[in-house]
User: Fold this.
Amino acid sequence: MALEKPYADIPGTTIFDADQVRKGYHLNMFCMSLMKPANRERFKADQRAYLDEWPMTEPQKRAVLARDYNAMIALGGNIYFLAKLFATDGKSFQYAAASMTGMSQEEYAQMMLNGGRSPDGQPNPTVRRNG
Amino acid sequence: MAKITAGVATSHIPAIGAAIDLGKTQDSYWAPMFKGYEFSKRWMQEAKPDVVILVYNDHATAFSLDIIPTFAIGCAASFTPADEGWGPRPVPVVEGHPELASHIAQSVIQQDFDLTIVNKMDVDHGLTVPLSLLCGQPAAWPCRVIPFAVNVVAYPPPSGNRCYQLGKALRRAVESFDEPLNVHIWGTGGMSHQLQGPRAGLINKEFDLRFLDGLKDDPESVARIPHIDYVRQAGSEGIELVMWLVMRGALDAQVREVHRFHHVPASNTAVGHVIMENIP
Assistant:
């Protein structure tokens, strides 16, 4: 019997469940390899060649090369592993999060200052801030 | 006899660590957040714990996808701050308490919680950011720390109730240790946030404040919140809040809340922080 996945209908959200862990194993382990400075250098020197050392699927490799974080997550990536990739690029969690929402980092940062996004996916009504 | 006297809960956002390490705590963006921890730093100096059991989650640092332990206790003599891809944080090495940690492991496993024992492990921002928030930037951390890692990265994490009951087992374990140690337990992570997908940036202040009220006065009900409510209402990463229930389970039914703070935002996340004491 299939497992119940009551979280499947949450808008704009992929839960990193056991199926995603299985699908994303090599993608995430590739990301983890970037914690070593020598690997970061080798990856930056020739990204495609470095990726080809890993038994990842072609769509996973293309998503990495395109830095398409939504695609990487759909293909089994997890944000804490993908963090090693955007850290290698010198980017922050806020940069990566903004890139997945279709907003510029500036717009996204302003949304966060205004109180973030409500669970229905829409930005919260602007909160008046002091000053 | 060792005794748990107090509990601390706090978010452990990596950007907070970066703000501390880069000297940005007085910037207009960060100053209001750090103000919420001024009381806590003074409180820490007065409360003087000998040991902190620090419940946190590893963020693809010590544990990859090769092995995913649900509950892991650090029994080593020391734990090195990890290089998470940006270089290690410039913070002191974390000194453990191997005697108490191994005593807890044996006691808690015999209470039906199957812990993974870890004798070698680097610790990431999940553990070092709370220490920085409560202790500032000392040359050495003021107490010993037992890292207690909970898997909240691969779904499903342990249930809220499992975490709450684990807290009770940890308390019994501590109270059966013969040395007269003053022990604190910290639960970290949260509050509402989502770091992935088009819904990234989720903040649910109402959920957070309800959670804080319930944690203090009605933890049994909070422990029954199902996973689906966390991920729907508090975001895919908001489910880290189950770790706060380990802390709460280790305290008395009635506690004194000596400090509470909630702030939006720190980078992508709502910051929550409470300090609770057992009433002597």
